[in-house]
User: What shape does this take?
Amino acid sequence: MAETWEVVIGMEVHVQPRTRTKMFCGCAIGQLGDPPNSNVCEVCMGLPGVLPVINKAAVEACLKTALALGCEIPRHTKFDRKNYMYPDLPKGYQISQYDLPISINGRLELDGRRVRIRRVHLEEDTGKLIHAGDKLHKAWESFVDLNRAGVPLMEIVTEPDIRSADEARDYAQALRTLLRTIGASEAEMEKGQLRAEPNISIRRYGSDDLGVKTELKNINSVVQETRGWSESEQRTFSQRSKEFAEDYRYFPEPDLPPLELDRAWIEELRVALPELPASRRARLVSEYGLPTSDAAQIAADRELADLFEAAAKFSGEGKQTANWVIGEVAPSGRYPSPTHLAEVITLVGSGRITRDQGREVLAETINGGGSPAEIVAKRGFAQISNESELRTIVEAVIAGNPRAVADYRAGKKQALQALMADVRKRAPQANPKVASALFLELLK
Ligand SMILES: [Zn+2]
Assistant: This one.
């Protein structure tokens, strides 16, 4: 029975665009941990007699996002009031966009799969309620913090094109990478700058119906319903029955003019977009010969990809540079300069130092310990790879170990290990590859 059903997921993602000020007033965005109600004014507190003003930077970030997602940008757009009562919404409505969003009909390409984007629109965030209570005395208090009220949000809505939890995660990650690459948002999930809400339904295979829908609020919802996610209990809980558009009594925001977006401005933004992650991924494969998995990992982080490309140009070693970037640099979270990274790669690649020593040199150069060459000299890391220098040592080892030499010549190839051990004793920096090649030559 089980395999006759499939899961159908659409995603709604709220993203805080990178702006200095709120969506409709001049209040600073502020930081997590600011004192409550320290970034507020008459507009975002919803006091009577004030007028909102549209934040151009938020519109610009939304347009860049829409362009990067290949959306159409209709000539006209407007804001609407979404009416509902809640203590964290002092105006009694949220300014959002209903039937004329800034952009429609885009797509995001995952690995081999396309997720269609229905719309990307702008709105404002709500405030935050803080509940405190004293069970013993049955005293309950709730506090309202309006620092977040009026913070701009882009809502990015997909068509129900996602078919598994893994794909939902891939979508959220790809979207985050894209937003960070184009600089539209820092998209830090821990700071609430990117909040994903999947709409999940199940249906029989082959059916086009979407079935009854459940929306999950704020992960990091059978009557149609909205469910919350409890991080501590790792389970969902019922928030409220899913509301329908008509419940909100949307109507055009009378305090804001409809926008007619300047086409020349949109073209400027389109031309100024940086290379997008999907095309960079493809280019890393074709230009540097990287395996697809390496290219995907590197292209997922713009800074990391910039470091990789610069270091690979200096070192001339695409795959080696990718190994170092993925294996050493990315996990440490601290980036060396591209020339220093390339220098370490060359030192290891040429056999001047071992890979372990290369790791130490890299860590030290990141910590400001000087250039890799300086560190190698200071720590006495340089391997002896010079053949004539090593020949002297190898000859001395042969002369000092007649027994092992005789065993080796009699066919006991493992005797070479004893000879190599003596090399290490006499010269710890000896390059083992060159030394063992010399034994093979001299003991023929
Ligand atoms: Zn304000």
